[in-house]
Every structure is written in C-alpha cells, then in structure tokens.
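Intended use. Records like the one below are meant for learning the mapping from a protein sequence to its folded structure. Do not use them to infer anything beyond what is encoded.
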Amino acid sequence: PFWAELNANRPGHSTLELWRQKSRLTRILKSIRTELAAQGVELPADWDKVEGATVCNIRIDRLGVFQELRQYANEIQNPSQPDLLENRFEQNSFLHVLRHRERQSYYLPVDFPEPFNVQPETGAELIPVASSVRVMEELGRMNRELKVETSFKIKGMKDFVEATEANIAQFESSFNSADRFWVKFGFLVLQRLARQSVEHRLPVIFQ
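Structure written out for the chain above:
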C-alpha cells in the first residue's frame, strides 16, 4: 500500500517526524496525480486508501541488482551490430524499465505512456515514477531475446525473498554467472514485482 512506508516508520518516531513524513507522501501523491492528469490518466479516487499487509517484499543485499538488466535493455534497443539480432526494437522500447532505480522510486498499477519524476519539495531529489503495466509489456518484449523460461535454471521468484551476501555468492556459484545471470535474475525480480502490482492494484515502492 502507498502508506506502507509511513506505517513502517511509526515505531520509534516522534509525532513531528511522522507528520513530516505524511506531509511529504501527501505532496508526492498530489504530484503523481497532477503528472498523470497531464497524460490524460486518472488514478482511482480511493487508490491510496488501500490498507493491509505488503503482498510482495524482495530484499537483495547487492547494489545494482537491476543495473545489468537496464544495460541489456539499452544493448538490444541500440545495438552496435543490429543485423545480429533476431528481433529489432524501436527506440524507447523500454522507457519504463530504464526509468527505474532501486531506491526512492515507484511503479504504479496504472497504464500511462511516459514515465516521469516528482519532487516532494523544492530542492529535493527527483523521484522516478513509472507504470507496472508498461513494465510487464516491456519485459515481455525483452524476453523475445532473453528467453528466460528456457535459458535460466531459476524458473520463478517468490513473493517474499531475503537474499544475503552469502545467498548471492551461492547463487553465482550454483548458476552460470557468465550467461547473463544478473540480467535474468533482475528480470525475474522485476517481473514478479510488476505482476503483483498489477494483480493487486498496489504500487511497487523502492526504498
């Protein structure tokens, strides 16, 4: 849920700190609605009122889990040797995948064409916002080249994952890390998050 970050911070935080966090999230939500309205998209009125437990929580103790996935998206979108590719991709085929970063960003369970940034206050860092619906479409296109289901030993991603440095070392030694391991691993993580976002109509929140 959108307010999960605020609820998670309640223990140990003062009333003033929680008020500041709520004000910040309220400004983010208002900016999101404004940006979407400019693209002719409207969030459901009660979208941010959804409450309940997190439906998917994936923690990977590795910096840049999706970095190689983004590099791969760039590679097949702008190939140096395009004739070697079985399938061609138009420019901007992976806008929403490429907009992603692994902290302070959102994927929303609504369909809109252009990812955008919001700024909670003047001078604050910009926060990327993209569409979970478009991410699913882009990953589907990407998989025409990647063929994760037939080329990767890990066949799926669970809803709740806590991968430590030791787990990661085991991953890399157990699987062929030379065969685009982190591209495919990142693909499965992002696919799971986006799929759950669309299915449950909840945002993906990177903290």
